[in-house]
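Problem 12. The chain below contains 330 residues. Write out its predicted structure in token notation.
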Amino acid sequence: MIHILDTSLFYLCDFQVTNTPISLASMLQSFMKKSILFLVFSLYAKVYPSLYAQLGTPLFKSVKDFKYLSTLDSFAVDKDLIQKLDSLCKEAIKKGFELDKNPDKEEIKAYLKALRQLQTLHDKIEKSYKQQLYKSIYSNDKESFFILLKRPLNLVRADARLKQKVVEFYKTTGQTESSYLKALYEDYNLDERSYAHMNKMFKLYEEKKDVISRKSLDIFSPDYKAKKIEVLSVKVKDGFDIYLENHTFSVVSVKLHLKQMHNLSSDVSASYINSYPSRSRSKMMHLSIIEKSKKSDFSISYGTMLGSLVTSYNKKYVYALPYKREKLIF
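Solution.
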């Protein structure tokens, strides 16, 4: 059996609590702000139905942006689709408010079905917008590019690849009039810095984990009661280290065989025999990952016996044994 030695990292977090006296005036000011925000939120919430709001509200809000697209010559083909979405959204909003007041199980099912149909129409229009935006970038059509982004859809910010292409093309235009594109550019740079930072932190974490796992191998406490012999596999940065733990009071010899090894190479032969000292942990071999992008796995079978197979002795030493000299004993 192969035992996997797992190590964990613990992060410590410092925080500070400050006790600050609060005046009555500041309390009243805070209360008024919260009351106004609550009132604004309440008024906003009534614009669209609360039933399935997570699905419905984004669809209803997108109609205004789609109506702008319907005025563009490039969206002449999608004009009827946008008008259909607008009409169905109005019906759905009306129905949603009715169900908010008087819910009915069957009608709620029908309402959800209607919202899903609206989602299908919405996605078709978004797809057309996305295609035209990519087309303007790849054909270096700056005029169409800025017209499409005069009233941008939310997917420009949400779609990472599209966002990257839009920002990269925007930089080549040399124009700075669009406040949206300037904000998108800053947002993209922030994303890039955040990704670079996270990637750097992940690499440091892997390196620390590797160091800590190796340090833990330096601390070996023999289990005198168990007197067991174990083979351990430790995951390291570039592969696996294989160790032998000998908890007995005797030197042990191990015959080990690597089998079903995928995407790995060993620094010793697949069939390996060696002897190890008592009450110790010893490194047996290292398995290196060949291609890091691919899956790596392996299995090991091994047998053990007490005593050393590679011992040396003095042939001139005289032993007092009850046998005749040069007689072979089986």
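Discussion. The beta strands are 2-4, 229-236, 239-246, 252-262, 264-266, 271-276, 280-289, 297-306. Students who got a different answer should revisit the alignment rule from Section 12.3.
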